[in-house]
Amino acid sequence: MLPVFATCCINVINRWEKIMSSEGSSEIDIWPEFQNLTGDVISRTAFGSSYQEGMKIFELQGELAERLVQSFQPVFIPGYWFLPTRNNRRMREISREIHKILCDIIGKREKAMKNGETNSNDLLGLLLESNMRQSNGNAKLGLTTEDVIEECKLFYFAGMETTSVLLTWTLIVLSMHPEWQEKAREEVLNHFGRDRPDFENLNRLKTVTMILYEVLRLYPPIVLFSRSTYKEMELGGIKYPAGVNLILPVIFIHRDPSIWGEDAGKFNPERFADGISNASKHQAAFFPFGGGPRICIGQNFALLEAKMALCPILQRFSFDLSPSYIHAPYTVITLHPQHGAQIRLKKL
Ligand code: HEM
């Protein structure tokens, strides 16, 4: 995984260096840059050699998310989603296109695996291999192709959008707080100098980890998620029948002064100096990756990828906000910068 992260990050950094002016500075909207980066990473880790076909999926999923949000009505009209409006038709078209790309990738891979022509060191290979082993020729056992398609779609969306959002807000916030940018750079240079980061030392980056946690607290990529009661139960002194949908408003809890103190709205990574459990009054108050049995399976992947991307950026550039940047977080399933994230980079 780490070589994949490194290759993708270096491609981005090299491109940034190429577009620098002769004075060694330039303005870049890092939001699409990080979407490309995390799309590239997830395509390669999910689909290995078929990553280029996979890249098309993330463009389509981005459009699907935008259209899904557009389709929410101020007033709920039952059956609205089934009407053949332009938006609904396009959404169905996109879903069919994603389905077809995934079917083609899976079909090719299954054929190659049967012929012994491929290894299984990517997500798709692992899913198909474990499926073949489990079902052992019995089509009724194991995952169906549809199951594999759904797993790939989930992995793709969950893994790409969220991490690109995390990286984007991190650079924005470090531009707003140059003192923390400097602290992070110092730590990275102390550990790695100008060299490529290695796995062992990436896990030892304390300041960078505190910064990432504080960004996840203030700008959680998933601002809310839900749970349903499967039986009658009492929560906080209130009885709920089965089937009630409960919303967990991550962003509100992450910014609640009664939990985090009076400076809850301020960027202060120092609060995580003694770990997550000592950062607030309630251990479970920090939950950007959800919780319980359905907690995000990609949290270590995401944090490692974010650190791997931040290191070469801090090693090679200093950065601040462009005057054209407008701070406007808004939600299109994940928490986006509404007008982009224009950053001025300066070569070090
Ligand atoms: C900053 C990055 C990320 C954030 C903030 C994030 C957040 C979340 C959240 C809030 C959930 C729902 C958990 C729950 O219901 O308790 C989730 C689920 C999930 N995430 Fe992530 N995620 C991130 C990165 C990733 C990555 C990189 C991958 C894959 C490589 C991934 C794969 C998944 C999957 C497959 C699930 C569904 C798990 C299940 O339902 O059992 N996520 N994520």
Automatic annotation (TrEMBL):
Record's keyword terms, sorted: Heme, Iron, Membrane, Metal-binding, Monooxygenase, Oxidoreductase, Transmembrane, Transmembrane helix
Listed cofactors: heme
Matches recorded under InterPro entries: Cyt_P450 (IPR001128), Cyt_P450_CS (IPR017972), Cyt_P450_E_grp-I (IPR002401), Cyt_P450_sf (IPR036396), Cytochrome_P450_Monooxygen (IPR050665)
An individual GO BP term: lipid metabolic process
Binding site for heme: C296
Keyword set includes Iron: yes
One GO molecular-function entry: oxidoreductase activity, acting on paired donors, with incorporation or reduction of molecular oxygen
Protein localization: Membrane
Record keyword Repressor present: no
Cellular component terms per the entry's GO annotation: membrane
Membership in a protein family: Belongs to the cytochrome P450 family.
UniProt name for this protein: Cytochrome P450
